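Page 37, continued from 36.
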């Protein structure tokens, strides 16, 4: 029952109860008064006048007190009924939701978001508690996302610092050789190679930062368009392999087109690097997620990569030309789009990467 209706029902009920008590008070007072002599005279039918017994002084005081009590009851009982309705209304409808909201506010002020706001009624305050709990959940998700980004940034900085040590050490040694005048073509080539390597590191760091700051632009795209773009991308990046591409024939998906294509290019390009002869690409919808899986028949992902997930500057098989940023940036984009990136190895095929995107996500 809503707050207004509850207040009206309680008020009317308590006032009616007070009027019932008032009627009972009048009935009792009248019954008591009838036991005392009324006094005065009585005229009979033959004209005879009889003087009735008058109440004594003590009886007169009792009758006066009964009259005062009746007058006071006419004021006190209706007012008391309204006051009782207010007390009952507070305890029945307000006390518990207010306590729940106060407890929630206190816990949020103490940076504790790991709780659930109980919703015990469907009235306006119950809806307020539900809205407050929704706000708490969104705040918890935001804090978790900020924490995840901070941890990812820490790992990224740590990996960046670690991988820069060797190039810096080599550059320092090369500078010493230059100062000593013992320079040959190999030294110059080494200086150029490691300078380019540092430049690639810096560009990789900048690209990750741009991905995290890139806003989502979600629109409706038909599956037929996404399939044709996957086919074009696969022919361009893995045209020498046997390709198998599947996608829904009808329907649309609400996604960020640029994010989807970037992840698809990274996964297909990564599969083309390690595949032997075949690449399988599958696009399908699972509830509110759009899933893109890319499978190759190569040697599979390293066990550490499958277990811990992509890491920045995580080179695969000692390949110094790549820093593992393709899978890492794909994972960043999937998380940004409300999904995730899962890497697995299969017996019949080498490796499978499954990227998911939340398709009902608002921009």
């Amino acid at each position: 029952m809503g707050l207004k209706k509850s207040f009206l029902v309680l008020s009317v009920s308590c006032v009616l109860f007070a009027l019932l008590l008032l009627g009972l008070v009048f009935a009792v007072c009248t019954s008591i008064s009838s036991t005392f002599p009324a006094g005065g005279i009585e005229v009979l039918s033959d004209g005879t006048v009889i003087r009735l017994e008058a109440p004594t002084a003590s009886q007169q005081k009792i009758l006066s007190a009964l009259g005062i009590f009746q007058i006071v009851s006419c004021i006190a009982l209706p007012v008391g009924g309204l006051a009782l309705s207010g007390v009952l209304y507070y305890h029945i409808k307000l006390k518990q939701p207010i306590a729940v909201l106060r407890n929630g506010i206190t816990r949020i002020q103490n940076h504790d978001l790991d709780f659930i706001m109980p919703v015990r009624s469907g009235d306006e305050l119950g809806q307020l508690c539900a809205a407050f709990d929704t706000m708490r959940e969104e705040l918890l998700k935001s804090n978790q996302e900020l924490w995840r980004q901070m941890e990812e940034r820490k790992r990224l900085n740590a990996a960046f610092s670690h991988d820069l040590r060797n190039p810096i050490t080599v550059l320092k040694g090369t500078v010493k050789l230059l100062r000593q005048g013992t320079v040959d073509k190999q030294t110059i080539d080494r200086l150029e190679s490691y300078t380019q390597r540092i430049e690639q590191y810096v560009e990789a760091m900048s690209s990750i930062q741009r991905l995290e700051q890139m806003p989502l632009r979600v629109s409706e795209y038909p599956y037929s368009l996404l399939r044709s773009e996957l086919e074009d991308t696969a022919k361009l990046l893995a045209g020498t392999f046997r390709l198998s591409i599947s996608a829904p024939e009808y329907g649309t998906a609400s996604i960020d087109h640029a994010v989807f294509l970037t992840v698809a290019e990274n996964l297909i390009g990564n599969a083309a690097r390690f595949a032997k002869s075949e690449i399988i690409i599958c696009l399908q919808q699972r509830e509110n997620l759009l899933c893109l899986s890319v499978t190759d028949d190569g040697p599979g992902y390293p066990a550490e990569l499958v277990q811990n997930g992509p890491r920045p500057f995580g080179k695969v098989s000692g390949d110094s030309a790549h820093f593992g940023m393709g899978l890492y940036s794909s994972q960043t984009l999937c998380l940004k789009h409300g999904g995730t990136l899962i890497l697995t190895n299969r017996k019949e095929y080498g490796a499978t990467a499954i990227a998911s995107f939340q398709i009902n996500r608002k921009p």
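Residues 316-323 have pLDDT under 50 and may be disordered. Flag for discussion at group meeting. The first strand starts at residue 41 and ends at 43.
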